[in-house]
Amino acid sequence: MKKLINDPEAVVDEMLDGMVAAHPDRLRRLSGTNVLVRDNAPVDGKVGVVSGGGSGHEPAHAGYIGDGMLDGAAAGEVFSSPTADEFEELITACDSGAGVLAVVKNYEGDVMNFDTAAELVEMEGTEVATVVVNDDVAVEDSEYTSGRRGVCGTVLVHQVAGAKAAMGADLDEVQRVAQKVIDNVGTMGVALTSCTTPEKGEPTFDLGEDEIEVGIGIHGEPGVERTTHMSADAITDELTDAVLDDLDLDEGADVLTVVNGMGGTPLMELYVVNRRLQELLGEQAIETWDSWVGEYMTSLDMAGCSATICSVDDELKDLLDEPVDTPAMVTK
Fold first, then answer.
1. Out of 23, 57, 61, 158, which one is annotated catalytic?
2. In degrees, to the nearest 5, what angle opens at C-alpha 101 toward C-alphas 321 and 328?
3. Burial code of 274-288, b = ≥16 C-beta within 10 A, e = fewer?
4. Could you confirm whether 219 is annotated as catalytic?
């Protein structure tokens, strides 16, 4: 294993310190925790929007802290949920009195610990609403979840909820638009290689030299099919068909697409995938309103990608057009 780390047990702690050092005007770390919040949190009168989960998915989640997105995020150890205590600290630090929306990916630990934290802060007078992202169309009721997994579609939820909160909407409205994204988004991924966690120091699962795993999770969870390597177009066809089957869109529907790298795939290859994705949508008379290509929710050094499609109406377009200013994403 060759990684730019010191002690594997300190990698999350050192990463968070490095993030704050890179963005001291944007981020601050709550003392004694793995929680980062925006430098001016809580923002007076605004609904707080928070998220979090295991580390190893950077820039998710702390990379999306800032204007138009999150007010804070908790980081667990690599591929492990933050504790309920850390989620409690996060929610409390981001509550201005207008309540807090927690955006949770559908994994057992994240859901359980966020629920426990919400109960604790509600006893102290903080109002909390929750949405659970479950956009992975590949697997339902896996070893890691009840229902579908939450993956790259989470980033769109962050942006829409963050935009609505920045407009001064109340907690119910912020929760409503976040759920609207969840109800209209699907994702499916593929792994060309395993990833290597710092503590383990070796691949998290075995994948043959000429094998790929279709429908993989962002922690290396099994997919729906292990097969021989295929062309980029063939892989994109499989991912796109699965998402479109799930969404069941009408002709003429407007969508936002995301081709997301898993951490170890060159941008060149992601654009090749996007080329085919857009061809397939055009063949089905589906209109691409916006297209993102890059690394938004990764899996350490895994080679592979995911394809996300989100149906967008005028309300979601307006919210997604709102400006964002975070370490990982800046829009005008």
1. 57
2. 45
3. bebbbebbeeeebee
4. yes
Query: What would the pLDDT profile of 205-256 be if each residue is shown by its tens digit?
Result: 889 999 999 999 998 888 889 999 999 999 999 999 999 999 999 999 999 9
Give the end-to-end CA distance of the chain in Å, rounded to a whole number.
40
163: Cα separation from own chain's centroid: 16
Q: What is the pLDDT of residues 176-201, one digit of tens each?
A: 999 999 999 999 999 999 999 998 88
Asked whether the bond before 8 is cis by omega within 30 degrees of 0, the reply is: no
Residue 158 is a catalytic residue? no
Contact in structure between 220 and 191 (CB atoms under 8 Å): yes
Please state at what angle helix 267-283 crosses helix 232-247, rounded to 10 degrees.
50
26: Cα within 13 Å, side-chain hemisphere: 24
Give the residue carrying structure tokens 């149906």.
311
Residue 319 corresponds to which amino acid?
A: L
With a cut of 90, say whether residue 202 has pLDDT above it: no
Residue 294's SS3 state is strand
Cβ atoms of residues 220 and 299 within 8 Å: yes
**Catalytic residue of the set 23, 158, 219, 229:** 219
* Model confidence pTM above 0.85: yes
Residue 21 CB burial class (10 angstroms; 0-12, 13-18, ≥19): exposed
Q: Which amino acid is at 228?
A: T
Q: Which pLDDT score is estimated for 204?
A: 86
CB 306 within 8 A of CB 239: yes
Residues in the chain: 332
Sheet bearing 35-38, strands edge to edge: 27-29, 35-38, 72-78, 48-55, 100-105, 128-133
